[in-house]
Amino acid sequence: MIDGTTVTPHEHGLVRVFKLDPQLAMDIGHHGVYDRLFKALGVKALDESDIQQLRPSTLEDMTVTDFLRAGYEVNEDDIAAHEFALNGLDNFEGLLLLVRSGAFANRPVTLPSDGEATLIATLREPDSDVTFDPLPNPDPQAALSDAPQKKAPSDAAMSGRVATLALLVLAVLVIVMIWVAS
């Protein structure tokens, strides 16, 4: 089971389900301001784009657990571990908040487990499957030996370099002669 009361510095992929006190729910619902929630959770701020408000009574034929499965694809083992608490939310008339890990900007944070925002469950979202194509040649030495060889400079390039050097030497000689003559 996941310790949902601690938001670690590198945490990702967790959804926390909070049951709100009626007064806090009214403040959020009527004013749309999360300042009191920040205080209840002991944080300075939350990214509101990672917070979802949910009233179980508006889900019609869907349970809170079904909503979490469909909307967040949460881990079935986590649902089973919190099944009793999550099923108890189906008849809850108040406001729930679903807060993803990305909402917590200032980390690490230790959240209170009760108070105006009661932590009900912490659930894992699925990790994104990242796949990479295999390298065309897994032998790094082969890649080094196949590197193109630098070609030798052409005769024209060498002639140009010699001419530039000769002009520089002549310019230095002229400057020295003018300096001696003055």
Portion of residues in beta strands equals 15-25%
Intertermini distance: 92 Å
- Biggest β-sheet, characterized? 4 strands, antiparallel
The parts where pLDDT drops under 50 for at least 5 residues are: none
SS element count, helices:
7
Tell me about this structure.
It is elongated and about 105 Å long. The longest helix has 27 residues, at 155-181. The chain is built from 7 helices and 6 strands, in the order ββααβαααβββαα. It is 38% helix and 15% strand. The strands form 2 sheets. It has a 4-stranded antiparallel β-sheet with strand order 3-4-2-6. A two-stranded antiparallel ribbon has the order 1-5. The protein is an alpha+beta fold. The protein has helices spanning 22-31, 35-41, 64-72, 76-81, 83-87, 140-145, 155-181, and strands spanning 6-7, 14-20, 51-54, 96-100, 109-110, 117-124. 19% of the residues are buried. The chain has a domain at 6-124. The mean pLDDT is 87.
Topology:
Layout: E1 6-7, E2 14-20, H1 22-31, H2 35-41, E3 51-54, H3 64-72, H4 76-81, H5 83-87, E4 96-100, E5 109-110, E6 117-124, H6 140-145, H7 155-181
Describe this protein with a few key phrases.
182 residues; 38% helix
Summarize it:
This protein has helices spanning 22-31, 35-41, 64-72, 76-81, 83-87, 140-145, 155-181; strands spanning 6-7, 14-20, 51-54, 96-100, 109-110, 117-124.
